[in-house]
Design a protein that fits this description.
The protein is mostly helical. The chain folds into two domains: 8-191, Growth Hormone, Chain: A; 208-443, Up-down Bundle (Growth Hormone, Chain: A). It is 78% helix and 0% strand. It has 17 helices and no strands. The protein has helices at 2-5, 10-24, 27-41, 47-80, 84-102, 107-135, 138-148, 151-165, 171-191, 214-249, 259-287, 291-311, 315-344, 350-373, 378-383, 385-405, 421-434. Helix 8 (151-165) packs antiparallel against helix 11. Residues 197-214, 412-424 and 436-443 have low confidence and may be disordered. GO terms for molecular function: transmembrane transporter activity.
Length: 443
Amino acid sequence: MVAKSRALTFGEALYVQAYVGAYIAFMPLLVLLLPRRVALITVAGGSERLLSLLVLVGGVVASLANIVAGHMSDKAMVRRGDRRLTLASGLVCLIATYGVLAVSFDPLLLILGVVAFQIAVNLLLSPMGALISDYIPDQRKGRVAGFLNCALPLATGAVGLVAWVAPVDGLRGFWGTLLLVTLCVAPLLVLWPFGVSRAQTGIPFHAPPAMGPLPVRNIVLAWWARFLLQLGATLLTNYLYPYIAFLTRGGMGGGRWDADGAVGWLSLWAALAACCGAVAAGRWSDILSDRRKLMAVSALLAALALAGFALAPGWRSLALSYAVLHLALAAFFSVEAAFVAEMIATSGQRGRLLGYMNLANTLPAILIAVTAMQAGRHALLVSAMPLVLLACACAGVLAAVLCLAMIARPRGVRQHADATDNEINDLKSFAKVLTPGGGGGGA
């Protein structure tokens, strides 16, 4: 009961800090260091194509690497009882790939470096994402997931810190970022406060007969709900700057803002709103007996914000819609992460299943990257952004409907050990739903 009343226990705080470090591993690289290096080594007009190619290749590699890394960490759980060695391997590989990227001034070497980086960062991220299901009790999953979803806005803030320390391209930016990552992740690996996983306790689990088929239905619906919301989130994230520039050229704001200043302020307020939404919704979902309704409300709020952003007549309504969008998205992803962690807590393949869930994050990014590579359609997409955002708002409404279509599950029923064979088979079938030909994950 003491642990339940705390905001975070010592072990949970170390976990959140390490999770933030994992996000810092890729946010400054993708937002600042990589685009800056690409601009330096390419001729005029070629940087956009190379950067889009890097994003596309990176997205495909990340999708596969996350599944394989999750499968490897599941095997480590069986052999060693924890995922510590897999996490440490990811950090070591990350240090090596940063060293390669720091001295990469050739396009081919940069592409190979990005491939190696995506493998390394997912070797760190995939097992780390499974720790909430391994060690966090169901009644605290929402609270911890809320803090975990602060990682993205905090890592975005780290981009500004790296830019201040390393204002020009060079080794300092890469090594400075790596230092931040190591300082965040290393304490978790050294202290490892979790002890033994619930899956290793050996306490027998007895599930009610009706519980067998529920997880696969709920997880598949959660996957599609996340995918639908990520379409709008990814689109607006990738095209925020050119869209704001398009609006300023059209006269919005009366010349008081330029694109750089407007995007900076929008990002700041969005980050603050996202942190508030993630923590508040996560804690609230622990209090509620049913997380589905909060997920549906968050999805509807995100849809409303997307529509408001698309139809905003001025800067104030635009900024308000953007902040509400990030608040709603952070709330949804926090509650949905806790919901999925509950569903898979008794499976012996938690890491690999979360790898399949991660496809709902990477596939929208791949779709956007493919679109961006069609340079001739870039201006058309920006000018048609209001219509595209309205379509994404409709996708958000559908995501809310999917949340309500999930089957209610009483909290706290599954507290121990491994699932029954039937449950594991049902959870395995989730991979068949999402992969062509019904194939499984990595080797």
